[in-house]
Amino acid sequence: MGHVGFGSYRVSIKSKVHRESLVRALEAGCTLIDTSSNYTNGESEELIGSVLSENPQYKPIIVTKAGYIQGHALHVLRELNEKGQALEDLVDLSEELKHSIHPEFLKSQLDQSLERLKRDSVDYFLLHNPEYYFQTEGSTQDEYYARLKKAFIYCEEEVKKGRIKAYGVSSNNFGLPLNDPQVTDLSRILSVLKEMNGKNFKMVQFPFNLIEIGALEKLGDYGDESLLELCMANGLTTVVNRPLNAFTQNKLVRLATYEEQTKNLDDKKAQELFDHAMSLVKAKWDEAVDENTTADDFYEVEMIKQFTDLWNNLPTPDAVDQVYYGHFFPFIARVWGGQGLSAEQAQPFYQLMETSYLYSRRNLSNKALEFKKQAMSVGLLPDDGDRPFSVMAVETYLDYGFDYILVGMRKPEYVDQMKALF
């Protein structure tokens, strides 16, 4: 029977709630923490290092990853390049995002990860989504595995030095059909390891959920085995990520519900809050209009028309962030002009944003409940409607035989839901 691991994507040392959640998970018996050098620009690793140094009685398995170049890592890359290092095999995606599994870059990331984690070694060091290479023009499968081999040789050296105990790959493309030109083919990875006599490749991480089930499908080129069975046959530890965020037809289905958070959402009060916020903006707008502009023109502003339609219909909290921080708040700042809004003046708009978050979670819950019903009707889930959807889904994955299911638990209540599965 597998276990739930603590997924630390989007956790930060700056958050007291995140710290409380991690400590609670460790107290409840969580045995694995997954992180990455790029999660919250290194602040995820800093939180883990801080919590474990303050609580040495807990000795969980630590998994970290490297490959993404964004935020602080962009400065690190420039420094390496100035020394003539990590120049080869760079995947240049944009000014703000690059990717590399070149040994010289991996070493710099491991150096920093160990420092942030306050450890001399990590249990597992994974290459993080190396398939970004396929976004470069002229990419080939042969070159992909040549780059992986170079990284594997480096990782074997780090095992000898004692800085990592084992290594592996985290790839979103493991579950693709083997004839897909961008697949990460585990059988080819195993061939590379055999060729180089690699002994310490021990972990494979990939997405799996009730919709994205590629890891269970028998793909032909693996013989009669699925990806999961091939991992088992070769003694590889399997780690599932994104267990509650499924994508179908490019749309997110969140396999969890938020009834507790949204039960007090009052549509009438929410509308009153929206109307009040809009009246504040309109009043400020009217101060600037001239005699040739009517008051009604405010409601014809494209930003206001779109926002009126969207504020309580956004599909996810991330969409709320995009609309408010990317559009609505900048619009308000322009309307106020000068020194901008005081904290008191801004409060109604932040209250409105919090209400939009609640609506987005209710929207996610409604979709999840609909999918839950469908999943139970076709036997994907047991017909037990009283327990949390997320718990039922994760229990089902563990029954399939995966070793670890990573669940993001940024709030203590999420830890409490999953603690029986640690």
TrEMBL record:
<dbReference type="InterPro" id="IPR053135">
    <property type="entry name" value="AKR2_Oxidoreductase"/>
</dbReference>
<feature type="domain" description="NADP-dependent oxidoreductase">
    <location>
        <begin position="13"/>
        <end position="264"/>
    </location>
</feature>
<dbReference type="InterPro" id="IPR023210">
    <property type="entry name" value="NADP_OxRdtase_dom"/>
</dbReference>
<dbReference type="InterPro" id="IPR036812">
    <property type="entry name" value="NAD(P)_OxRdtase_dom_sf"/>
</dbReference>
<protein>
    <recommendedName>
        <fullName>NADP-dependent oxidoreductase domain-containing protein</fullName>
    </recommendedName>
</protein>
<dbReference type="Pfam" id="PF00248">
    <property type="entry name" value="Aldo_ket_red"/>
</dbReference>
